[in-house]
């Protein structure tokens, strides 16, 4: 079963606009991660936010985490054509002593229109 | 992707035949994973390993087995391939401290006819 559910499933915006994707999950987590997948390629890790963190930045990416609502958002600012990809959230439910594995959502397909 | 390779990249096989996919890493990471990716399902975990000879099942393990005899290699075997196992298979690795997320291979596209 999927732990993370992304919303929306698909998003199209003009180049230069900001893109926001949301992720909801069901159980307590150790951390939440976001990945990007270009068509026909493997997933690339973007950012990791721990359960005791509320916001994290990396370049044009901003991730927030609300553990009380079991939700996260990924904001991509000043979008570029190269940002066209699928974006997945993934939750790590394991303890710090093992049983570490990620559960992925079904993804948001982002299309940047030049 | 740097440090992790999957082979083969593409394979077509017949129903009922055994198939083995290989994942090789050069990062000396403890954790290795096999996922399958299907439209509408995202990535689903098949099996994972937390050390040599230490493996465990994921959510879609039926019909699959794995082996890890060396830190660098994690093999996924479809014991008797079925059409429902047509998918793209991804291997991933993770370090012990889980600070940097997973590194994924480029995937194996498997078609069972």
What attributes characterize this protein structure?
heterodimer, A: 114 residues, mainly beta, 11 strands, B: 113 residues, 0% helix
Structure description:
The complex is a heterodimer of chains A (114) and B (113). With 114 residues, chain A is mainly β. Chain A is 0% helix and 54% strand. Chain A has strands at residues 5-7, 10-14, 19-24, 31-37, 43-50, 55-58, 61-66, 71-76, 85-92, 102-104, 108-113. In chain A, the strands form two sheets. In chain A, strands 2, 4, 5, 9, 10 and 11 form a six-stranded mixed sheet that branches. A five-stranded antiparallel sheet of chain A has the order 1-3-8-7-6, with no helix packed on it. The mean pLDDT of chain A is 91. Helix content of chain B is 0%, strand content 58%. Chain B has 113 residues and is mostly beta strands. Chain B has strands at residues 4-7, 10-13, 19-25, 31-38, 42-51, 54-57, 64-70, 73-78, 87-94, 103-104, 108-112. The termini of chain B are far apart. Chain B is built from no helices and eleven strands. The mean pLDDT of chain B is 93. Chain B is globular and about 40 Å long. In chain B, the strands form two sheets. In chain B, strands 2, 4, 5, 6, 9, 10 and 11 form a seven-stranded mixed sheet that branches. The chains are: A mainly beta (114), B mainly beta (113). Chain A binds chain B through residues 1-2, 30-31, 33, 35, 41-45, 48, 88, 92, 98, 100-107, and chain B through 1, 31, 33, 35, 40-45, 48, 50, 58-59, 90, 92, 94, 98-107.
């Amino acid at each position: 079963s999927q732990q993370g559910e992304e919303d929306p499933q698909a998003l199209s915006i003009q180049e230069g606009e900001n893109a926001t994707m949301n992720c909801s999950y069901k159980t307590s987590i150790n951390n939440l991660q976001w990945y990007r997948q270009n068509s026909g390629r493997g997933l690339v890790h973007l950012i990791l936010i721990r359960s005791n963190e509320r916001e994290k930045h990396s370049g044009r990416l901003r991730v927030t985490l609300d553990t009380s609502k079991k939700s996260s958002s990924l904001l991509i600012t000043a979008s570029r054509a190269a940002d066209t990809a699928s974006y997945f959230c993934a939750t790590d439910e394991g303890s710090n002593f093992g049983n570490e594995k990620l559960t992925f959502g079904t993804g948001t397909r982002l299309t940047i229109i030049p | 992707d740097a440090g992790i390779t999957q082979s083969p990249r593409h394979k077509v096989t017949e129903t009922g035949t055994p198939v083995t996919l290989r994942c090789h890493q050069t990062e000396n990471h403890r954790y290795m994973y096999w996922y399958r990716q299907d439209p509408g399902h995202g990535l689903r975990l098949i099996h994972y390993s937390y050390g040599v000879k230490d493996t465990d099942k994921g959510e879609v393990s039926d019909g699959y087995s794995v082996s890890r005899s060396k830190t660098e290699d994690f093999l996924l075997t479809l014991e008797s391939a079925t059409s429902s196992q047509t998918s793209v298979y991804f291997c991933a690795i993770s370090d012990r401290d889980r600070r940097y997320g997973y590194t994924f291979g480029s995937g194996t596209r498997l078609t069972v006819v």
